[in-house]
Specification:
This protein is an alpha/beta fold and 497 residues long. 35% of the residues lie in helices and 17% in strands. The protein folds into 2 domains: 95 residues, Urease, subunit C, domain 1 (Roll), CATH 2.30.40; 359 residues, TIM Barrel, CATH 3.20.20. The strands form 2 sheets. Strands 1, 2, 3, 4, 5, 14, 15 and 16 form an 8-stranded mixed beta sheet that branches. 43% of the residues are buried. Bound molecules: zinc ion (ZN). The site of zinc ion has 5 residues, from loops.
């Protein structure tokens, strides 16, 4: 009886299928292309790639059987790669605009930026971004744009009054950031705000909320101060242990902001999965050449414990760029920055952050200010090269924007981060891995991303040069393929009205 019921059901399903109007699958075929993908040590020439409904169906040298209506691309002389993943971005922050500037003219600049931002990432071949802590409205605004990279986001676990909330007026801090962790060890200087329930501000409660939001990761901030800031509160060892246990229980990747040697040591001891910055603040070990023994020992520890590492070299470079007279004249800026915002950067008001940084350094001239940042940045470059030489896989993360500097711009900084890795002496195939499969694996996304393989999401790039041989490949992107849709690069450039 049961068996016959099942077969009647099956017949019915087949009949319904047959009656349903046929929806043709969206097919794309790329023919005779050279595939450059991290699972192959060498480029694979004369490959035919079939893409259906946004996923790769097959990759091989045999001819492809596609529907008659399929889009076909002649791939001869071109290189097909996975789309780039940038695993350290902040889509809610507008480069160069002050936090909380509440004026309609600024709002209109911010709106123009928000419209262009995802297109700028795509323009530079970035088809996946990982946002390290923004509000849900900011993430929704990014995804509301008609063309945007696939967006992933880590939830923040911030200690009461700690970085980055130190930049928010204490009067509104808890409204802006209601999900802080209360640290009993800091109670004397940072007591629980009046009326707050300590049971709602434990690592477990905050991390449960992040897990419920569907985020793949949690970001913590190990920062006791920079520039003029000092003595910012940190989580105690006990609290960090609870954060680690709760993230493990929920299967969340634990990412830590830390860029100074003492802070990174705390991160390593807390057994984080990823350190979201390069090591450039060497404190008492500072040196203008090589890697001092104490720094080298720490980097070997990172390698031994298999901790993911984002060099984020653009953080210091983007501060130096505030003081470089041709930064805003760079033709690449016009491609990614909306025209009104670019014009505003040139005005005295648009230079506010440069003025503030200069004052903080005791008013040096431009060249001296730029030099100061480049010296610190060069330590981060040497640390990344040292790690690479140990055989440590690096992660591409640009930290765009890392501060309110116009020196960071979406997409262009992902490219400039890769260029700085090359300038540090890191070979191009390693940079390619950092930009593709390493990021996908580290954040548990390699089922869908990171290589040109059957079954993966068709976020791909068609390049006119081989990225394993020249950095120029990343500036000569012919087309961007986003979930199987083919986009011409120039169509993504910022409008020049
Ligand atoms: Zn960041």
């Amino acid at each position: 009886m049961k068996g016959s019921q099942r077969s009647i059901g099956a017949y019915l399903a087949i009949a319904l299928l047959w009656l349903a109007p046929a929806v043709p699958a969206e097919e794309l075929v790329i023919e005779q292309v050279t595939v450059v993908s991290p699972q192959h040590p060498k480029p694979q020439p004369r490959q035919n790639v079939l893409i259906r409904d946004g996923r790769i169906v097959s990759v091989g040298s045999q001819p492809v059987k596609a529907a008659s209506g399929a889009t076909r691309i002649d791939g001869r002389g071109k290189f097909l790669t996975p789309g780039i993943m940038d695993s350290h971005v902040h889509v809610g922050d507008v480069p160069g605009l002050a936090l909380g500037q509440n004026d309609p003219a600024m709002q209109s600049l911010a709106d123009a930026y928000i419209r262009q931002q995802p297109r700028s990432y795509l323009y530079h071949g970035v088809t996946q971004v990982l946002n390290l802590a923004s509000g849900p409205e900011q993430l929704a605004a990014f995804e509301a744009q008609p063309q945007h990279p696939d967006l992933f986001s880590c939830g923040p676990v911030i200690v009461l009054d700690g970085y980055p909330t130190v930049f928010i007026d204490p009067a509104v801090r808890y409204q802006v950031m209601p999900d802080y962790v209360y640290e009993p060890a800091n109670a004397a200087a940072h007591p629980l705000p009046k009326g707050a329930d300590p049971a709602q501000h434990t690592p477990e409660v905050i991390i449960d909320k992040i897990a419920a939001s569907g985020a793949p990761c949690v970001k913590i901030f190990i920062e006791d101060g920079f520039a003029e800031g000092t003595g910012w509160p940190l989580m105690s060892k006990e609290t960090l242990q609870r954060v680690r246990a709760a993230t493990r229980k929920r299967g969340l990747t634990l990412v830590a902001h830390a860029n100074a040697i003492d802070m990174q040591r705390i991160a390593v001891e807390a057994q984080v999965d990823v350190i979201a910055h390069g090591l450039w603040n060497w404190n008492e070990y500072s040196s203008d050449e090589g890697v001092p023994p104490a720094i080298a020992a720490h980097l070997r520890d990172i390698h031994a414990k298999k901790i993911g590492y984002q060099p984020t070299m653009r953080v210091l470079a983007a501060l130096a760029d505030l003081f470089r007279e041709d930064t805003l004249k760079d033709p690449a800026y016009a491609k990614v920055v909306p025209a009104p915002l670019l014009q505003w950067y040139e005005t005295p008001a648009g230079q506010w952050f440069k003025d503030e940084m200069r004052k903080g350094m005791g008013n040096p001239p431009d060249m001296k200010a730029m030099h100061n940042y480049l010296v610190v940045g060069s330590r981060g470059m040497r640390a990344a090269k040292y790690l690479h030489d140990l055989g440590h896989p690096l992660l591409l993360g640009s930290d765009t924007p890392s501060a309110p500097t116009f020196g960071n711009q979406p997409g262009y900084d992902t490219y400039r981060e890769m260029r700085m890795m090359a300038q540090s002496g890191i070979p191009l195939p390693t940079i390619f891995q950092a930009a593709t499969i390493n990021n996908a694996r580290q954040f548990g996304l390699d089922k869908d991303y990171g290589s040109v393989e059957a079954g993966k999401i068709a976020n791909l790039l068609l390049l006119t040069a081989n990225p394993l041989e020249t950095m120029r490949a990343w500036t000569s992107i012919d087309r961007i393929i986003l979930r199987g849709a083919v986009i011409k690069r120039e169509s993504l450039a910022a409008p020049r009205e």
